[in-house]
Amino acid sequence: MIAALWVPFATVVGVVTSWQVQIIDNDWVERQQAACRHMPFPKMEYIAAWTGPVLGISAVAVCVLLAKRIRRRYGVPLWGTKRGLAAYICAWPGVLTIPLELFLLYAAYSPANSGPILGDCR
């Protein structure tokens, strides 16, 4: 069942891509300060910001659908199979990381309070 392997993959990749939002934003600020001028906002930050929650929510949704399928087909709970157990174990951290991913999505769209400080540019 490939669906069972999707849950751990989506959980890990969702968190990693959400953290990329911060890395991209910090890099953008540093490039502006080095160039001593305002630069266009990187579109890759929006892509990374949306990818995190999409993967996190899809991991949990696939786990729920997988649980229903295994229950209907084999008559055992999700953790009754090896891959189902792996999906079940990885779904819980996925549930806990969804708020972080949603916060980073919000942060990507919220304007910076003071904007990047360009320093003493002469």
Q: Topology, please?
A:
Blueprint (H helix, E strand, L loop, with lengths): L1 H34 L7 H32 L7 H28 L13
Main sheet characteristics: none
> CA-to-CA gap between the ends?
61 Å
> Radius of gyration from the CA trace?
19 Å
The beta-strand count equals 0
Contiguous uncertain segments of 5+ residues:
none
Indicate the structural class: mainly alpha
**Number of helical stretches of at least 4 residues:** 3
Shape: rod-shaped
Strand content: under 5%
H/E element sequence: HHH
What is the helical fraction, as a range of percent?
over 70%
Mean pLDDT: 83
Give an account of the 3D structure.
The structure is a single chain. This protein has 122 residues and is mainly alpha-helical. The chain has three helices and no strands. The protein has helices at residues 2-35, 43-74, 82-109. The protein is rod-shaped.
